[in-house]
Design goal:
Layout (H helix, E strand, L loop, with lengths): L5 E6 L6 E8 L3 E4 L4 E8 L1 E6 L2 E6 L3 E4 L5 E5 L5 E8 L1 H7 L14 E2 L2 H15 L5 H18 L13 H12 L7 H8 L3 H12 L3 H18 L4 H7 L5 H12 L3 H8 L1
Antiparallel strand pairs: 1-2, 2-9, 3-8, 4-7, 4-9, 5-6, 5-8, 7-10
Helix pairs in contact: 2-3, 4-5, 4-7, 5-6, 7-8, 7-9, 7-10, 8-9
């Protein structure tokens, strides 16, 4: 039996709209999405993941990126642990920084870049953000330089968020997005969508990449993350997000983000 290895640190960031995390783990993350734009660097080992352009692999030294709303997962190659340092950027922050170069404020990036120059930009930005007393001017310049480099060399045109072609799946997604804290059932979603439960389940997985229940749990976890960042306690966040209890919420939060809700709140609230 492989021994579980999981070390994670949510860094305190003095820069609004930016979070930083360091992780070393052999944990396999299930398919999930983030509200933020992520950019980081692999520090050790190798990872295989499902992404907006299909399955990709990354290894030490590679830059890893994720788009807001992009369904992805992550597992270590050959069962060994791998590590990375990553920044999560609020989409509004990214849109503001690239406004002059991308008037619509949209940036869709490749999941992996083997680019030593970009890696240097990312490492510099990570060090500045993780500094207890960050120089805001230096951070602004490094962030802008990093995003401009990504925009001109590693942007892609593929969609990031679920763009279902069928009206039935779109109706189910809208319901789950609008009220993730409210209980529902496959029968209710199917009735709302005008199809059978089997048709909805099959279509949802084909078009979104996961099941309605897994998608709902992800939306609830993302709601918990926002509640914790606003200062709510884990117990309150679990209740407000629709989880049966705090332990259920904690398991789902750790499974998706790799850190406990309490440690996350202590770092960002």
């Amino acid at each position: 039996m492989v021994k579980r290895m999981h070390r994670v640190e949510q860094h305190r960031s003095g820069i609004p709209g930016i979070e930083a995390m360091t992780l070393f783990s052999n944990h396999a993350f299930p398919r999930h999405t983030h509200d933020q734009f992520g950019i980081g660097i692999m520090t050790s080992g190798a990872q295989r993941s499902w992404s907006v352009i299909g399955q990709v692999e990354s290894e030490a030294g590679d830059v890893i990126m994720v788009n807001p709303g992009e369904m992805h997962d992550g597992m270590p190659v050959n069962g060994g642990a791998r590590g990375w340092r990553i920044l999560y950027l609020d989409p509004a922050t990214v849109a503001h920084e690239i406004a002059d170069e991308a008037p619509n404020g949209e940036l869709t990036v490749s999941p992996v870049a083997r680019d030593p120059q970009l890696a240097q930009h990312v490492v510099r930005l990570l060090a500045q953000v993780e500094n207890p007393s960050p120089d805001s001017l230096a951070v602004d310049e490094s962030l802008l330089r990093c995003l401009m480099y990504v925009l001109h060399r590693h942007a892609i045109g593929a969609p990031t968020a679920p763009r279902a072609s069928s009206p039935s799946v779109l109706k189910a997604i809208r319901r789950l997005n609008a009220e993730p804290e409210a209980a529902t059932s496959l029968a209710e979603l199917a009735a709302l969508s005008g199809v059978s439960r089997f048709q909805l389940l099959r279509g949802f997985f084909r078009e979104v990449g996961t099941t309605p229940h897994a998608y709902l749990v992800q939306r609830r976890v993302r709601l918990v993350r926002r509640l914790l960042a606003s200062g709510r306690s884990p117990a309150d966040a679990a209740l407000l997000a629709g989880f049966a209890d705090q332990s259920h919420m904690t398991r789902a939060f750790v499974r998706q983000f790799g850190i406990t809700p309490g440690r996350y709140r202590d770092a960002v609230a």
